[in-house]
Amino acid sequence: MTAEFAAALPAAVVVLALCLGGIQTVGQQVRLMDAAADAARLLARGESAGAARDRVAAAVGAVSFRADTDGDFRCVHLSSVPTFLPARALGAPVTASSCALGGEAAWAGSTP
Does the predicted model carry a pTM greater than 0.90? Predict the structure, then answer.
């Protein structure tokens, strides 16, 4: 019984480490989603792309930042390298995008 336990324990530790790393990667993606939404709202209110980029950098650190306009929507696309080493080895980035309604269309239905 001791030999079976000694053989199974490393496998259980590896599975536990991979699960915790997956949770870490999902947490990173949630932080990126929140930062993208915050930056899109800033752009929709008329702030500069530099101010939005600074806000994202303060929230999540170094990421790839791209802002664009789609009609009345101001969109932000973020991309980052995973912090979990096995996920980083796969080469797939962690990404998030968000859009917010801005410009005249955002204020058309409001009453002063």
Answer: no
